[in-house]
Write the structure tokens for this entry.
Amino acid sequence: VSTQSTGQNSNQINMADDLELPKASVDRLLRAALPEKTLVAKEAKSAVQTSAKVFIHYISACAADIARSHNRSKISESDVLDAVKECGFGEFTAELKEFLSTEVANAAAKKQAKSDKAESKKDGDEAEKVDEDDDNDDDDDDDDKDDKVAAAEQ
């Protein structure tokens, strides 16, 4: 990670210092990672929360440097994986790749389900519209009867 920083980058880092990871998310991660019935002190949760925030900042900064070195302003998945390796966590890249591929598949399935739901709703709305049109046709028949009655009275 580059140790040179511009005024803009240091401002971004200072603003990011105000951000915190949600405590509920950190608690959930701790419960998932630790054996059941393991108690975690409040200070320990806070330390994990701060450590995770620092790790995210560090990996993000490294990934941004990698993207810039390839003349890109957008960080890609491969930049993050390269940053993880560069920061000395290369043994986790296989697990991260597997997780990312699962997440991409889940996101695609969720998007498809949302699209299918919207399509079925659209089909349902069209069917409802046809039913309303049929109902309106009945009203036209009533109008025709009224016209016939009025003509007969004249």
Observations:
- The chain has five helices and no strands.
- The CA atoms of residues 27 and 45 lie 7 Å apart.
